[in-house]
Amino acid sequence: MYLVKELYIDPGTGGMLFTVLFGIVSVAVFSLRALLLKLKFSSGGKGAKTNKKKIPIAIFTDHKRYWNVFEPLLNEFEKRHQKVVYFTCSKDDPIFDKKYEYITGEYLGEGNKAFAKLNLLNAYVVVASTPSLDVFQWKRSKNVDYYIHVQHGANDISMYRMFGTDHFDALPLSGEYQVKQVRQLEQMRGIKKRETPLVGIPYMDEMKKRLEAAGDVGPHEKTVLLAPSWGKSGILSRFGEKLIDALIDTGYKIIVRPHPQSLITEKEMMDRLMSKYTDESKVIWNRDNDNFEVLRQADILISDFSGIIFDFTLVFDKPLIYTDTKYDIGPYDAYWIDEKPWTFRILPELGLELNEENVSNVKSLIDRCLEDPSFARGRDKARAETWVPMGEGTKRTVDFIMGKYNEVVAKASENKKQEKPAKNKRFRLELKKGA
């Protein structure tokens, strides 16, 4: 009995240890796969011809859905006549419809094929919103001088899977609390200090400009947008028909915008729900690629831990109903941080919580959120903490990237100058010996 007690590990620590063990095994598996693919691509064929000339600035995206993150940056690079190669894993990425002069789009393929090419990339600077560099398949290329990670949301930098940002050289951020999280992780893990300039959030700045240009929606019936994330903690998995029925009973216009991943990994559930609620006078299913109009039309959002929360509350300046998702931070960097993630601390100031006890009374939650002025003050507070500086994101981000590019080019040029005399000296010594 005593021995069992001594060996007890609390669930949180056990979860973290399991995650670390799983990560070690996964790294071994993915490293072996990456090595095989690297041998394949470096031993001849198309891969061997890729990136012989050093690319000035490369941007990598693993999916076209992040186009809104990168389009403002690409437009700014184009305006500055800066050459950039935009690598994407989506064949139908919007980059291929653009008529840029200085920006080139290139389809990498999917999965390991894409990472094998990235692992051999020859570039001065690489910019990406994809995390886990040097953790799983995606390895730092010895021919890349500098890696920059850009966020695709206005929330915690610690909400990535463990070690997700450890191996980037710079993390342009938008809030002091994010900088604090980075410094804590660096200290705890003994990793190098990364550059963390506060640049703001380019895509949110652009969305705000677009909203101002679009103007007011005008008179309309009260509209509720249900936009969940996916997985077992998501709203539809937890509440499903119970919530949708309660929303229909409000008499308000109901729009449901499922997460794209739900349509893939939760297909059975989605098929069931979408076949049950087919009357558009009661429920409208929205699957537009661009979420701008549906966010503009909605008066209130119901969501869980989706990034759409901050787009809606901070850009469109409207209230929120959020769920108590019982979110397990065990697999994430947030587990290492000594305080509750900012995302979960700020939610009560943006709206009301939906739970098992009040889901049937969702109408009263909606009405209270729409009428309570305290949530407007909460949105002001959130903007001041996580959107810094507002309105300057694109310029500041591109300024930072260009600054790093100029630095590494200058450094490479200096190294080359220093190598030349050394080579000449060795050549003279060898020539003297030969004589």
How would you describe this protein?
The chain has 435 residues and is α/β, with parallel strands linked by helices. It folds into 2 domains: 11-199, 3-Layer(aba) Sandwich (Rossmann fold), CATH 3.40.50; 205-386, Rossmann fold (3-Layer(aba) Sandwich), CATH 3.40.50. The protein is built from 16 helices and 11 strands. It has helices at residues 2-6, 11-42, 67-79, 111-118, 176-189, 202-214, 235-238, 240-249, 262-265, 267-276, 292-297, 308-315, 342-350, 362-371, 374-386, 393-434, and strands at residues 55-61, 84-88, 103-107, 123-128, 144-149, 223-226, 253-256, 284-285, 300-303, 320-323, 351-354. The strands form 2 sheets. A 6-stranded parallel β-sheet has the order 8-7-6-9-10-11, with helices on both faces. A 5-stranded parallel β-sheet has the order 3-2-1-4-5, covered by helices on one side. Strand 1 (55-61), helix 3 (67-79) and strand 2 form a beta-alpha-beta unit. The chain is elongated and about 95 Å long. 37% of the residues are buried. Mean pLDDT is 87; it is low at 1-13 and 36-51.
